[in-house]
């Protein structure tokens, strides 16, 4: 791995760690308000939907960090080809390369 690639991967790790922290904080806040009938003008269903979306984002971020630790980050889960760094920089939690993402419809 070149120094430039290594630096870019370290930057991605930092982004993912920041996202993990932000999602954790948001989930804590939303969970607290999830028991309140209305929060910031949002009905209970909206708050519950945001809780679920934040849980999924947190799980996806944790999974990306786990893949980094295991050395499989940046490899497509379907075709096993490398995911271009440019894609990972745009979408750090990406699990698939663009062709496989389009095929799976996710």
Automatic annotation (TrEMBL):
Domain Zinc finger DksA/TraR C4-type: 71-102
Keywords in alphabetical order: Metal-binding, Zinc, Zinc-finger
Tagged with keyword Metal-binding: yes
Record bears the keyword Zinc-finger: yes
Entry superkingdom: Bacteria
Pfam families given in the database record: zf-dskA_traR
ZnF (dksA C4-type) ranges: 76-100
Record-linked InterPro entries: Znf_DskA_TraR, Znf_DskA_TraR_CS
One example GO MF annotation: zinc ion binding
Protein name: Zinc finger DksA/TraR C4-type domain-containing protein
Taxonomic source organism: Phytohabitans suffuscus
Lineage, broadest ranks: Bacteria, Bacillati, Actinomycetota, Actinomycetes, Micromonosporales
């Amino acid at each position: 791995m070149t120094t430039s690639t290594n630096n870019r991967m370290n930057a991605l790790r930092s982004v993912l760690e920041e996202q993990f922290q932000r999602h954790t904080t948001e989930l804590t806040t939303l969970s607290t308000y999830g028991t309140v009938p209305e929060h910031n003008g949002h009905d209970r269903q909206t708050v519950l939907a945001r809780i679920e979306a934040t849980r999924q984002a947190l799980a996806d971020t944790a999974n990306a960090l786990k893949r980094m630790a295991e050395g499989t980050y940046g490899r497509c889960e379907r075709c096993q080809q490398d995911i271009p760094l440019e894609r990972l920089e745009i979408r750090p939690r990406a699990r698939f390369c663009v062709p496989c993402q389009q095929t799976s419809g996710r």
